[in-house]
Design goal:
The chain has about 240 residues and is of the alpha/beta class. About 30% of the residues lie in helices and about 20% in strands. The protein has helices spanning about 5-20, 45-50, 70-80, 100-110, 145-160, 170-180, 230-240; strands at about 30-35, 55-65, 65-70, 85-90, 125, 165-170, 190-195, 210-215, 225-230. An 8-stranded mixed barrel has the order 1-2-4-5-6-7-8-9, surrounded by 4 helices. Helix 4 (about 100-110) links the parallel strand 4 (about 85-90) and strand 5 (about 125). The chain is globular.
Length: about 240
């Protein structure tokens, strides 16, 4: 073969290598819809939610050390009947006089426990700004004190159930009230609240990703709209441990 021909072929090969390849098809990550509710949702269409594709629900059980949600029991029973994976959550009221351990114990005594039946989620600790006009937005606790309070709660829950609870929060609250602590990122699954069609946004506290995203305050069948970050097998694994 002539030298000129070889040179032409070699140049063609180089050009071909330089051309951008066709973009690979990006596979969309599987997600599972769900929702969360409390007594504010007196009527919930659990069967309708299941038929629409929802496979889990998180139900308010307790708050502080004195409040039991009056709809928890009926919501929990109805969710079970509708074949939803379900679990309870505790609305935290952190303070120096009401320890995390005491509130975890109260939660566990009133619906917040876990069992290895494959349909029960580990309990969820709801950490958000103080809704009361007194006590300050972070309940009067310093960032280190807040981290210690959460530690007291999650350690008590884990020692009693063998499971780490999920932690619900927003990026803003976590940064403001814990100093963006990464103390729980390797143990407690994150439930991240952000109402946006653009996605869950910044993930705080050293968590690499959110396990569940609370994406909207309005769900067609009752409560807030949630999304599990993974497929149904992953959701079932979260429930089964």
């Amino acid at each position: 073969m002539k030298t000129s021909t070889l040179w032409a072929l070699s140049q063609a090969a180089v050009a071909a290598l330089a051309l951008p390849s066709s973009p690979a098809r990006i596979e969309e990550r599987a997600t599972v819809p769900g929702f969360d509710i409390s007594h504010y949702q007196a009527s919930v269409n659990f069967v309708g939610a299941y038929n629409s594709g929802a496979r889990f629900v998180i139900i308010k059980a307790t708050e502080g050390t004195t409040y039991i949600d009056p709809k928890f029991s009926s919501h929990y029973t109805s969710a079970t009947s509708a074949r939803l994976i379900r679990g309870g959550y505790h609305f935290a009221r952190p303070s120096s006089s009401s320890t995390g351990s005491a509130q975890a114990t109260f939660f566990l005594a009133h619906g917040g426990g876990w069992s290895p039946d494959g349909i029960t989620l580990p309990g969820m600790l709801d950490m958000e700004y103080n809704p009361s006009s007194t006590g300050g937005s972070c309940y009067g606790l310093s960032q280190p004190a807040m981290v210690a309070w959460i530690r007291s709660f999650v350690d008590t829950y884990q020692s009693r159930t063998g499971r780490w609870p999920m932690i619900y929060t927003t990026n803003d609250w976590w940064v403001t009230c814990t100093g963006n602590s990464a103390a729980f990122s390797s143990t407690c699954p994150l439930v991240l609240a952000r109402y946006s069609s653009a996605g869950p946004g910044t993930v705080p506290g050293g968590w690499g990703y959110q396990t569940i995203w609370q994406k909207d305050a309005a769900y067609a069948y009752g409560g807030d709209s949630d999304e599990f970050n993974g497929g149904l097998a992953g959701l079932q694994k979260l429930a089964s441990g």
